[in-house]
What we know:
The chain contains 15 helices and five strands. By secondary structure, it is mainly alpha-helical. Strand 4, helix 9 and strand 5 form a beta-alpha-beta unit.
Amino acid sequence: MTEQKIVLSGMRTTGRIHLGNYFGALKNWVELQDRYRCYYFAADWHALTSDYADPSQIAQNTIDMVIDWISAGLDPERSTIFVQSMVPDHAELHLLLSMITPLGWLERVPTYKEQIQQIENKDLSTYGFLGYPVLQTVDIVLYRAHFVPVGEDQASHLEISREIVRRFNHLYNSEFFPEPQALFTPTAKVPGIDGRKMSKSYGNAINLSDSPEVILQKCKQMFTDPQRLKRSDPGRPEVCNLYDFHKLVSPPEIQERVARECRAAQIGCVDDKKLLAQILSDFLEPMRRRRAELERDRDTVFDILLEGSRKARERTAETMEMVRSVMGLDYKKVLQKVTA
């Protein structure tokens, strides 16, 4: 019987999940559970690369995020759900791979340059931030993952991981680590309520856990067609933020009706916002209900993470035993040769 291929992915522990996270990654994670052996982790050490000065919220953010994962359909019986820092082998392999990764590779990573320029309120001139791609590589290869689910615009992020794997295999005459492949998954455009990309840092997000009242309030703030100044003006759904959300959560017949009535000025933006708020609330209700159950029983969530991290360590222990061997760090083997 052919071994099931392994998929691995994770998220930085920044707290509750919003619709951008859900449609950009989490929805696909849920669907992949039936086809692959899946490992999904809360990347709390990655959060430290930028939030090291004040890590006080990282643990709480981790729990909040994992509760949302499970509420949205991640199943601990079908996926291994764990916390990065609960699997210490991430740190050991990070150290070992940092020994072989050329400095120039890290300095040319596009996201490194971009974030150094864009994030002005944090000092990112640290080894940990520069070495982020090495830790990211470790997260993948430690589980000997075959696939990493990404959108087509993110495929380049995997290339440095593939380069590090090739260098390791070449240096140690090994084919131990498979080169991770991009598993292209559909990713929907999810704008924030202001039209920019949905992001916690922009304050424009709708969370999976938002109440109907909060969702209605956020929908009322949504940007619409800037040329539609009066109720009687015909609208353009193709440039309206509201319609982007309809395409995500509304049934096809509602999408078609809203587009037609908007162009004919038969529905106003205020009424459309109320309609969208109700559809969003209905869409998120099962997740909110499941979240409420988990919130009342946080011990269960912690137990899931403990068990998931234990399963993860079983996989990583196999990996590290082989890594130490090919790198000549298996002292038990050396001593056995000496005494033979």
